[in-house]
Specification:
Layout (H helix, E strand, L loop, with lengths): L1 H6 L3 E6 L2 E6 L2 H11 L3 H19 L12 H13 L3 H8 L2 H9 L3 H18 L9 H19 L4 H6 L6 H12 L32 E6 L5 E6 L3 E6 L5 E6 L2
Antiparallel strand pairs: 1-2, 3-4, 4-5, 5-6
Helix pairs in contact: 3-4, 4-7, 6-7, 7-8
Length: 254
């Protein structure tokens, strides 16, 4: 409490999904905290691990990987802190858990799942080590699946199990869907449409951009590669997050 009172003049509330998050107001204050308390890598890893463990308790209060938590911020931040703490075993388990995937989509965070997987794969590649499962195939399968389906699950999050089950056989999402389905009591198994003639090769599609009323005619990336602009016949320009495929803004009247 005393620490909160001391920091109060330097904090500002940020509204996010009807929640209030406190953030340091000045960039200089953030830099000062990092230089004073987080100069050593072990210190940074310890802080991120502590935050990841706290967020895990909020997201999975029963501790049985049912992901019954209701705190959207916990689901939003958990993979980030697991990644920063280099908790590769926990991170792989979280991001390749279809229950976590579906719950995060249900909380309106389907595009953030795409960003989580992309960040995790990039960060782990820099470490030049193997994933705990011995291969990056599972993470890559989920990353491809999330990129293809994020636009659909943003509107219909209840279809996460169906879409995973209709992924190619023996892919990680398909196997995860089978495991979830078989673990549910008969009366709790949701209805879904089975795609009998589905392709058995992974779709090379990386992202699906949705929301056009007319065909897209041109696109361009920002110099840092983080944003993409697209132009359509409908005289609109849309700005996208190039990592997740989420629409950032729409400019009309061109």
């Amino acid at each position: 409490a005393s620490l909160a009172r001391a920091l109060q003049p330097f904090l500002r509330p940020q509204a996010r999904d009807a929640q209030v998050v406190l953030a340091l107001f000045h960039v200089e204050a953030v830099a000062a905290v990092r230089s004073r308390y987080l100069t050593l890598a072990p210190h940074r890893l310890r802080v991120h691990r502590y935050l990841a463990e706290h967020l895990m308790q909020l997201a999975d209060p029963r501790g049985n990987y049912s992901w019954s938590g209701i705190d959207a911020e916990a689901f939003r931040e958990l993979p980030y802190h697991q990644c920063k703490a280099q908790m590769w075993l926990e991170l792989e388990s979280t991001l390749c858990d279809l229950r976590f995937f579906a719950r995060k989509c249900a909380l309106g965070l389907s595009y953030e799942v795409v960003a989580d997987l992309d960040r995790a794969l990039s960060a782990h590649a820099e470490q030049d080590t193997e994933w705990p499962s011995g291969s990056s195939a599972q993470m890559n399968d989920f990353a491809a699946f999330a990129g293809r389906c994020a636009h659909l699950l943003a509107e219909r999050p209840n279809l996460a199990l169906q879409e995973a089950a209709n992924a190619p056989d023996r892919s990680a999402p398909n196997e995860a869907a089978r495991e979830v389905w078989s673990s549910l009591p008969l009366e709790q198994r949701p209805c879904w449409v089975r795609w009998e003639s589905k392709p058995q090769r992974l779709d090379p599609c990386r992202l699906t951009l949705a929301g056009f009323s007319e065909p897209m005619m041109a696109c361009a990336f920002s110099p840092d590669g983080r944003r993409m602009a697209s132009a359509s016949r409908g005289r609109t320009i849309k700005i996208w997050d190039a990592r997740s495929g989420e629409e950032v803004a729409t400019l009309q009247g061109h």
